[in-house]
Amino acid sequence: MIETKKKSLAEDRFFGPDPQQREIAASLFRGIADLPLICPHGHVNPAIFIDPNYSFGSPVDLLIIPDHYIFRMLYSQGIALEKLGIVCQEGEMQSEQDHRKIWQIFVDHFHLFRGTPSSIWLDYELRMIFGIEQELTTDTAQTIYDEIIGKLATPEFQPRTLYKRFNIEVLCTTDGVDDPLEAHQVLSSSDWNVRILPTFRPDQVIDIVSKNWKTNLEALEKTSGIDIHNYVSFINALENRRVYFKSLGAVATDHATQSPYTEELTAQESETIFQRALHGKVMPEDAIRFTGHMLMEMAKMSVEDGLVMQLHTGALRDHNTVLFERYGHDIGADIPVQTEFTSNLRPLLKKYGNNTKLTLILFTLDETCYARELAPLAGHYPVIKLGPPWWFHDSLNGMKRYFEQVVETAGIYNTVGFNDDTRAYLSIPARHDMWRRASTNWLAGLVVRKIIDMDNAERMAQELAYKLAKRSYRLEIPQGG
Predict the structure, then answer these.
(1) 198 Cβ contact list (under 8 Å, min separation 6)
(2) Of these four, 5, 135, 444, 448, which has the most CB atoms within 10 Å of its CB?
């Protein structure tokens, strides 16, 4: 029998090397470690909470195939995606069906993830959720695979049980504008007293150059019950769906654009572009102008109905054309691009920037914007809040850079704390653990340097871990609720 060393997570992980700072960070962390998790933006499938016999499948189904962080790294080292179980849409190559083989490939190359958020999250999941003490190595791969399989077959690993174990207070999903929200209907009418809420995402009907735009528009017609034949009926359908999302508890919308460009079109311009799109005659600038205008429309609707507006920018999607054509969207080839906010958002801010009925939460993949644009904008306009470091920057170093560049101008109260933004359900507590440790370590540094005292550090830790997110997303439970 091969002897392997046991591995546990250090209690003071992620804290800085200075002894005084470590001690203060540990004290601050203990004060917030057990706070409930507020998860106001993410991509967990709500359907997993309906079936009492739901199965996560194999460790590969759960931890590898859905995770673009993992297969993009493996692909960068020359490992074919078919070997990881990714299905080729063109049918040229058969994907590997043996999940034990896929798991072994992953573990054999796990050294590639050393020092990355992926290894931090997986270590947490293995140790803290599955209770696995063996180190993940080539020799232990199959034993750990069997142990995970055994755990997943128990009632303790049903999604609802894990929801309680993770101490989640609110979980928001992200749902297409045409989604009938059947899972949310079931959950809202069940006697399971939790808050799992939809989020309104209309991107698929706003992107008029998408090859699926007409199909998506037809789906919107079906779910809204509105015949969409012109721009006005299009807006009516969107408003109809927002009302329905709100009826099932939605508190926010979500919008993903490469650029935060905004522009207000005239009624005639809007109609002309929309008609060109309906007839397949979109002109080169139409998509940019229409998307910019629709961000204005979404802001207007949020002023009227109170839904918090989220804007994620700065990703050039499907950069690797070959992979996109073979495997479709979301295969890990999205790359950050330079982003400009000050001029691009000015039309929207001119009209709505001083209206306290609107909350606009900004996310970017361009960190150069933090100190130069985003912090000054958030530090002035009442409508703007800054989302946490996102995607490529959801890391210890990314969080450190965020605090250093944003807070001295915007403070923490113009940020929204943390959201995990994941479709990997079991990674949620791991991501919140990293944020809480990173934020308390940063606060401890301020205490050591006598910038703030311990009492204020404790208050700020509570805000960053829990209160800011709850307040920013208007998640306070209404009276009588």
Answers:
(1) 46, 172, 173, 175, 179, 181, 184, 245, 248, 249, 250
(2) 444
Positive or negative: CA dihedral 190, 62, 473, 247? negative
CB atoms within 10 A of CB 438: 24
Phi (first) and psi of residue 385, to 5 degrees: -125, 155
Q: Both tokens of residue 419?
A: 């959201």
pLDDT in tens, 373-417: 999 999 999 999 999 999 999 999 999 999 999 999 999 999 999
Left, alpha or beta for 417 (phi > 0: left; psi -120 to 50: alpha)? left
On whether both 65 and 37 belong to a single domain, the answer is: no
Residues 153 and 282 in one domain: no
Type and span of the H or E element at 324: helix 321-327
Residue 176 lies in a domain: yes
Collect all residues with Cβ–Cβ distance below 8 Å to 150 and sequence separation of at least 6. Answer: none
Residues 349, 425 share a domain:
yes
**Pair (398, 272) in one structural domain:** yes
Bridge-partner residues for 38, per DSSP? 170
Within 10 angstroms of residue 269's Cβ, the number of other Cβ atoms is: 16
Supply the range of the domain harboring residue 466. 19-54+158-472
For residue 315, give the 3-state DSSP assignment: strand
How far apart, in whole angstroms, are the C-alpha atoms of residue 414 and residue 283? 39
DSSP-assigned letter for residue 360: E
67 and 191 fall within a common domain:
no
In angstroms, rounded to a whole number, what is the distance separating the alpha carbons of residues 473 and 481?
A: 17
173-201: per-residue pLDDT in tens?
999 999 999 999 999 999 999 999 999 99
Per the listing, tokens 């055994």 go with 150
Kindly state whether residue 479 falls inside one of the protein's structural domains: no
Residue 10 within a domain: no
Q: Which residues pair with 362 in a beta bridge?
A: 311, 386
Helices (H), 86-230: 99-108, 117-124, 141-152, 159-165, 182-189, 203-206, 213-224
281 lies in the same domain as 421: yes
Q: Structurally, how many domains does the chain consist of?
A: 2
Asked which of 138, 157, 176 is the last residue of a domain, the reply is: 157
Q: Which residue has the tokens 């069906």?
A: 97
Percentage of residues in the chain having pLDDT higher than 90:
90
**SS3 assignment, position 37:** strand
CATH of residue 103 = 1.10.2020.10
